[in-house]
Amino acid sequence: MSEAMQQTVMVTGAASGIGRACVQLLLERGHQVGAMDLKREAVQSALPAGAGNAEAIACDVSKATDCAAAVAATLKRFGKLDALIHCAAIHSSTFWTELSAEEFNRVLAVNVTGSFLIAQAVGKHLEAQRHGAIVMTASTTVIAAGVGGAAGSGGPAYIASKAAITGLVRTMARALGPSSVRVNAVAPGVTETAMIRNYSPENRARAAASAKVSPPNVLDT
Rounded to an integer, what distance in angstroms lies between the CA atom of residue 113 and that of residue 95? Predict the structure, then answer.
């Protein structure tokens, strides 16, 4: 791949699931990746052998200082930054009658505030250079509207957090669009990752059917 075609992409949630799969695909296609998760060691273990085009970075997206440091680390290693794929999130299956304010706020802090903070940190750089792209992760659980519970499925805290991504993407897209920076979201269906390991077979099937998506994809067992 020519240097002009090679992209530098930051990926959050890189140690597992969809984030890990994104990192692997980007590396296979010759791109450079700032791979981020809570623990640098977990990212390093998840990277393919000999992944010379990857930089493992520890980052808690709910902390603005971590997000800014992750951008700085990527730029220091690769000298440029073209895009962000934001997959990092935490799950909650707690039923509404048992859901505490503390758990609800913790999910929002990571999934919503964290999405904003990492987009803000990357967006400042992309806006200044007047090109780039940001992709956030929503969820078809917003359509399926699970209620959580012991058998698994997203509960109100998780679903509310993913619904918020739609509004966040729209406002960020309008803000950054004049600088030629694209902001979009993808909404994966139920996917076989560690996040849904406790889902019952019935809830997996119900979530897939309700969202009108294909059966679960296997990305991480």
Answer: 22
Residue 90, Cβ neighbours under 10 Å: how many? Answer: 17
pLDDT at 17 over 70: yes
Assign 61 a pLDDT band (cuts: 50, 70, 90): very high
| 199 in catalytic set | no
Q: What element of type H or E holds 167?
A: helix 156-176
* Dihedral, CA of residue 197, residue 64, residue 7 and residue 217, to nearest 10: 10
SS3 for 35? Answer: strand
Please list, in sequence order, all residues whose beta carbon lies within 8 angstroms of the beta carbon of residue 209, skipping any fewer than 6 positions away. none
In the chain, what's the furthest Cα-to-Cα distance?
56
Nearest to 12 by CA among 78, 63, 51: 63
Distance CA 213, CA 36 (A): 28
How is residue 218 written in tokens? 């296997």
**If we measure between CA atoms, which residue out of 171, 151, 148, 152 comes closest to residue 160?**
148
Q: From CA 163, how far away is CA 95, in angstroms rounded? A: 17
Please report, as a single letter, which amino acid is at residue 1.
M
CA dihedral 22, 27, 31, 33 (to 10 degrees): 60
Q: Which of 158, 164, 172, 203 is catalytic?
A: 158
